[in-house]
Amino acid sequence: MAQESWKDVDETECQKCDRLILCANNCGFLGSAMTNILCFASYRDHVMKEQVMAVAKPAVLPSSQEQLEMVGVDE
Length: 75
Prior knowledge:
May be involved in environmental stress response. GO terms for molecular function: DNA binding; zinc ion binding. Keywords: Metal-binding, Zinc, Zinc-finger. This protein has helices at residues 2-5, 40-56, 64-71. 5% of the residues are buried. It has one domain: Single alpha-helices involved in coiled-coils or other helix-helix interfaces. The chain has three helices and no strands. By secondary structure, it is mainly alpha-helical. It starts with a helix and ends with a helix.
């Protein structure tokens, strides 16, 4: 039946690696392909840094011509 087919697939199972991979951040812990070859702590720091950079990224200001058009000034 359809219910039995999902039992064969375990979505939470990680793929086994033939060799150990050290963290790309050279912290000495083991990295994972799922985390861009970073250990958990380095990956967490990387994600947090990306989030901060995305929030801190300045908005693109419109050009002078677009600003004049927004206020209704014709050249």
